[in-house]
Amino acid sequence: MSFNTIPAFSMPDIQKRDAETIAELKLALSTHGFFTITDHGIADDVLESSYRLSKDFFSLPETLKNTYAHPEKAGARGYTPYGKETAVGETTPDLKEFWHHGPIIDDSFDHRISENIFVSEIPEFNDQFNILFKQLNLLGMKVLSAIAIILGKEASFFDAWALKGNSILRLIHYPPVPDSSNILRARAHEDINLITLLVGAEESGLEVQNTDGDWIPIAAKSKSIVCNIGDMMQLVTRSQLKSTTHRVVDNNAGSSASRYSMPFFLHPSPEIELYSIVDESTDSISAHDFLEERLKAIKLY
């Protein structure tokens, strides 16, 4: 079954878990791997303030931003410079720079989850992204609860995996594209994690590949959130739920503007064993090892 549009669901409808909504969501995730969430409950002012502070950071001088780079940690926290991340199988890097922010941790988290880095030049930065991280994490857990129901599990099935997971809020800046020689801001890829929540970008460019190989654009809507399945979820569901190839393009090369987005990558805790939750297969890999392999593949190590 192919598709030419991405379905939309309101969060209140998802939480009601009536049979019709659950069936439609299951169909979306088993064919598209993508859907849009409306009425998600994250306030406009939280999103607007987050975008403003993200732009403030990326406007800092390059030499200053580079002091926040930690390539020895594969950019798990802090800044990753422009032209570093490279999609699996590609030789040309993506046209972006980004920042990683995680949970506020304590001794109850796995010791491999890093602390956040404080941005001294922007006093509100860390507090603002702590707020956004917490709200996106809660939203993500609600989506995981619906996915558990889809899979015939208890609603709380994924709580032990992800409530204190190794999740990442990524702030991305795609600078203007100077010419048409390379319009792929982020080359075709799949996400690593369980699910991704993408806070609506101000500029269009996200495209999803359907089963016919066609690229389906997702319109930029700042008040909606796009959700998609990641490779970890595809693995544990034995591809019953699809991790779909997507990319970011700029069709306005030469007159393009900066593009900003804020994807939230919901990960399990590093010690969680990723095994089939839909059949009796005993194959497994730890979430930590799976992530490390993929970070090396995209050249962040």
Q: What's the rounded overall pLDDT mean?
A: 93
Q: Number of helical runs?
A: 8
Mind describing the biggest β-sheet?
8 strands, mixed
The CATH C-level name of the domain at 43-176 and 191-204 and 219-224 and 241-260 and 275-297 is Mainly Beta
Across the major sheet, the strand order is 1-2-10-7-12-5-4-3
Order of helices and strands: EHHEHHEEHHEEEEEEHEEEEH
Share of residues in strands: 15-25%
- Measured between the Cα atoms of the first and last residue, the distance is 38 Å
Query: What is the helix content?
Result: 25-40%
Principal-axis shape equals globular
For the secondary structure, the number of strands is: 14
Q: What CATH architecture of the domain at 43-176 and 191-204 and 219-224 and 241-260 and 275-297 would you give? A: Sandwich
Summarize the helices and strands and which ones pair or pack:
Layout: E1 8-10, H1 11-16, H2 19-31, E2 34-38, H3 44-58, H4 62-66, E3 78-80, E4 97-101, H5 125-150, H6 159-162, E5 168-174, E6 184-189, E7 195-199, E8 206-209, E9 215-217, E10 225-229, H7 231-236, E11 246-249, E12 259-266, E13 273-275, E14 284-286, H8 287-297
Parallel strand pairs: 1-2
Antiparallel strand pairs: 2-10, 3-4, 4-5, 5-12, 6-11, 7-10, 7-12, 8-9, 8-11, 13-14
